[in-house]
Amino acid sequence: MAIPLKYNLRHVARRWKTTSTTVLSIGLVVAVFVSVLSLANGLSQAFVASGDPLNVLVLRKGSTAETNSTVRRADYYSAKFLPGIATGSDGLPMVAVETINIASLAKLSGGSSNAAIRGISPASLTMRAGLTLTEGRMVAPGLNELLVGAGATTRFKNTKLGDTIRLVKSNWKVVGIFDASRSSFDSEFWGDVEQLNREFDRSMYSSMVLRAVSPEAVEMLINTVETTQKLSNLKAQREVAYYAEQTKSSAPIQFLGVMISVIMAVGATFAAMNAMYASVASRAWEIATLRVLGFSRGSILLSFSLEALAIGFLGGVIGGILALPINGVTTGTTNYSSFSEIAFAFQITPGLLVSGVVFASIIGVVGGFLPALQASRIPIIDGLKSGS
Amino acid sequence: MTLLTYMAKNAFGNPRRTALTGLSLAVSLALILVLQTILLEITKPTGLDESIPRIVVRHRTSLTMQLPRPYEAKLRRLPGIVAIVPFNWFGGVWKDDRFENFFPRFGTEPEKYFQVFVENSPRDPAMLAAWKATKNGCFVGDKLAARHGFKVGDDLIIKGDIYPVDLELKVVGILVGPKCEELLFRLDYLDDLLGETTRAGTYFVLADSGPRVDVLLPEMEAMFRNSDAEVKAETEQSFALSFVEMLGNIKLFINALVTVVVIAVLMIAASTMSLAIRERTREVATLKAVGFTGGHVMFLIVGEGMVVSMVGGGLGLLLAWFVLPVPKYFISIGAGILTLAVIGLPLLLVSVLLPETGRGWYRRGLARLRAAIEAYGPGLSVFAGVMVTLLLLQAMPSQDWVAFSGGMIQSMTVRPETMYLGVAITLIVGLGSSLWPAWSASRLSVLDGLRNQE
Q1: Which A residues, 206 through 225, put their C-beta within 8 Å of a C-beta on chain B?
Q2: Res B234: pLDDT
Q3: Residue A339, phi then psi, degrees to nearest 5
């Protein structure tokens, strides 16, 4: 027969002073767990959100990223009229040649960081669903004009409408701000590809983006690029797959978060153990009475384990609440596959909060195990003798 | 009985509780020291000699832009320059793109390299001659060579990713110095492969003195102002630091973590102390009844808190100091503790859950089994833990962190300033955890205390 849970919960409430410090120390562990993992989460989300399922990204064979790929003008002409490419509202095939350049720009927080400056074609904007111009207008071809991503405006100086930025040898004017729904494009600066190529002294493009007419046509289009003789120096892949690959850059943060939380959890487990031992010690007589009443050792063990679980659970909930304010705070790091700054936000998901609570409950149960064991093994006679 | 022995006796009056609190402090403190060591290792890496007056010149726009090669001769003419060498980042892939197979590969010029990097030298002087005679020859850093087992005479193929060519290199020398992690090949070999003179990513310049560097930096930048390729000149230290900055605000990140850990450990210690004092309410009242003042009582309790925190803190410091610098110790001891828990806890659980019912041989058998588990279980799990630790200590290769982390971590040796921080935190925890219970005990009325039944 099981001992009612109410028995334990009332005890927890009565000893609230000791319980609260234990709960809070478990809460802090969970707060760290949730915050660090939400950091990793936000970073990978930036990559997962990048790219469009209908887009095919074409890079040079052997290159590992846009930054070290080259696509020639001739490639563009050969690819432009491949079958399976969608036609834009202007009646032209939806093919964009792009270049990715890196410029070190002044940061709002002081110092400087590498910014990704993407040279774009007119089709680039319409090909990315979820990307909207929120302020200003599109850049005009042949002019030194830039669009700035919403994320980049929170990281770099001179990114307001009308500001000028010096890139390599000339000044560029900010004429528009775009919101790319927290994808990695959000951290970029966009300008006319030909004009940027002149600025950065390059004769070739970095990549080419083709838009397929339908989801079924994507695979076909990739095959067509791979088998076209004139494009044998290139390889094609889904744009989303290219960015998904970069989510691995959040793995070190994830690893660090789990490591730190586990080590902190060891400390919190000891705290839970202390609290539970004290709780058991002060109740030897009660426990013995329960045994006399016919409760088995197993049910005593279960009862005290549940008490520890409740303490852990409470800590988990508090930890989650402590971590919540960090949700949405933006920060930045360098994306090493593009060698440029990527802005992203801490992102707390319901799933993360649930794993925090589970983690805390485990801390409680592990910490409560030995004390509960002791409780279950108190000899009845000794317990009854302890009086009080 | 002196006051000190009274404190110590109280601190160890409940040895299990003191051990648990001490251990949680030890583990948390070790974690703080690890984080702090990593932070220092990132921001001030070991092996960077700040006394060498070296300048890095690169394109003003970014590192991905390159500088014309004639810049070298122009820079060389500035007064106070001892030597200059071009550097070119090749990138590329060796074997596959797994992280552990990544290491820096630079194109440079043999003779000039050693003129600028005076702290590095060929393991054998004849190696430099061999490099000058072999166009596709390369040097590998001693640490890199140790990690991948590279030796003189080996052939290495580096597939190009930035450049559309593959390097087919022959190892002709080993580079010896404080921080030699890279592969160096000849820039003119790359020029040959590409059929054109490449530009240089950076120029490393050795100045004749530290003060000269401050004069040279603005001079160099002014020299190429308003040209097609403007330059940025900075000291080698600030060049290295700019890579750290790229990681983001790592300092804030780690400091925030450390703060949270300190608060958590403070709370753990405080809860233990208040438990300990509450159980001794009558004892405290007795002390006051026989004439100890509130101040005395406070002193005694704070002292007790200090004893507990110093035991735990000392253990944490020892842990960080001895175990951390050697990956082998770190992993084998961790694995040993894990084994102990994995074997010990289920055994304990079984011994409790075995039913006490039944009759005859069945009941006797169960009782015997339970007795056996209780008698040998703890010993067995401790034995298994110790064996795993010893076995791993024997079996694991004695690598340092450089090799273990694939060059990511240079060293995990705890530096003196980190140790001071650890000592300070220990004292803060001792004081912080006991002040509140001590204060409330000092205000306890004798009557209330004696009446207390707990």
Answers
A1: none
A2: 94
A3: 55, 35
Contact A94, A88 (CB under 8 A): yes
Which of A208, A181, A245 shows the shortest CA–CA distance to A56? A208
Cα A177 from Cα A186, distance rounded (Å): 10
CB B58 within 8 Å of CB A35: no
pLDDT band at A5 (very low <50, low <70, confident <90, very high): confident
Tokens in use for B342? 């994995």
Q: Indicate the domain borders of chain B.
A: 3-45+248-451, 61-229
Contact A171, A125 (CB under 8 A): no
Q: 3-state SS of chain B: helix, strand, coil percent to 5? A: 60, 15, 25
Contacts of A120 (CB under 8 A, 6+ apart): A96, A98, A139, A190, A191, A192, A193
> CA–CA separation, B185 vs B191, rounded Å?
12
Q: Note whether A201 contacts B228, CB cutoff 8 Å.
A: yes
**Residue A109: pLDDT band with limits 50, 70, 90:** confident
Strand B231-235 with B54-59, pairing? antiparallel
The model's pTM is: 0.85
Q: pLDDT grade, residue B47 (50/70/90)?
A: low
Q: Which residues contact A305 (CB under 8 A, 6 or more apart)?
A: A365, A368, A369, A372
Burial of B279 (0-12, 13-18, 19+ CB in 10 A): middle
- Tokens matching residue B265: 């450990």
CB B229, CB B59: distance < 8 Å: yes
Which chain A residue's Cα is nearest to B224?
A169
Instruction: Please give the single-letter amino acid code of residue B373.
Output: I
Q: What angle do CA B353, B357, B362 make, to 5 degrees?
A: 95
DSSP A212: B
Q: CB distance B93–A64 less than 8 Å?
A: yes
Given a cut of 70, whether residue B195 has pLDDT beyond it is yes
Contacts of B374 (CB under 8 A, 6+ apart): B351
Establish if A278 touches chain B: CB-CB under 8 angstroms: yes
Residues paired with B94 in a beta bridge: B158
**Is B352 in Cβ contact with A377 (below 8 Å)?**
yes
| Integer angstrom CA distances of residue B353 from A36, A139, A298, B339, B365 | 39, 74, 6, 22, 14
Decide if A62 and B161 are in contact by the 8 Å CB cutoff: yes
Q: Note whether B27 contacts A263, CB cutoff 8 Å.
A: yes
Do the bridges between strand B137-141 and strand B167-176 make them parallel or antiparallel, or are there none, so unpaired? parallel
pLDDT tens by residue, A219-230:
999 999 999 988
Q: Does B5 touch chain A (CB under 8 A)?
A: no
Residue B400 clears pLDDT 80, i.e. is over it: no
Residue A341 has φ and ψ, to the nearest 5°, of -65, 135
Closest chain A C-alpha to B365 CA, distance in angstroms: 18
ipTM score assigned to the predicted complex:
0.84
Residue A363 has pLDDT above 60, yes or no: yes
> Which two structure tokens, joined as six digits, stand for A149?
């991503």
Rounded to a whole number of angstroms, the distance from the CA of B17 to the nearest CA of chain A is 6
What are the extents of the domains in chain A? 5-48+249-386, 62-232
- Taking the C-alpha atoms of residue B427 and residue B29, their distance in angstroms, rounded to an integer, is 12
Whether the pLDDT of residue A67 is over 90: the answer is no
Counted residue by residue, chain A has a size of: 388
Asked if B263 lies within 8 A of A332 by C-beta distance, the reply is: no
CA distance A92 to chain B (A): 32
Verify whether the Cβ–Cβ distance B161 to A373 is below 8 Å.
no
A387 CB within 8 Å of a chain B CB: no
